[in-house]
Amino acid sequence: LVDLHGHGHPHNYIELGYRIPGHMLNEIVKSNGTKSSKQKYTVAFLEELKYFSIPDSFLDKNLDEFEESCKNVDWRSIVTSPVKHEFTMSKLMRRKFGGSSDSIKEGLIGSNSFGGCLSKHLDRMQPLTDVGCIPSLKKPSPGRLGYYTGGYTVLKHAKWKGVDAVQVELP
Description:
Helix content: 25-40%
Strand order of the largest sheet: 1-4-2-3
Structural class: alpha/beta
Strand content: 5-15%
Number of strands: 4
Order of helices and strands: EEHHHHHHHHEHE
Distance between the termini: 20 Å
Oligomer: single chain
């Protein structure tokens, strides 16, 4: 499912919302060789995100154990942290790319990812060469830019059997 919108952010990036918080993408990118940001993925922080809900089965687990597991985030964290309940491309990711950190990275920002394929086509069109995608190889995380993670429509429909969803926000 593709939920298509236009965004009002002052940049030329197409924002691909898979329900992965921008802070988490920033943290994953920063953890690959640079100093970690101060944002920690505590349950309280995740609950503050719009439309984020934590399943009752997760609430029965040890929260200290969860917070410890979030200290060293990588691309695999998307499918092992509570964000996995929000991630809207899990079926395609398992089927086409696999579950390792490198496979998930390829599935989200690699040349064969949705953002990678879209970027390839944009680069071929002269008037659109300055338009990129977030997340993609060129811009794997939003940094300080505005970024829509994906809303209610992609969250609800991605829970259906066999359905993956992405919210596409055009500049």
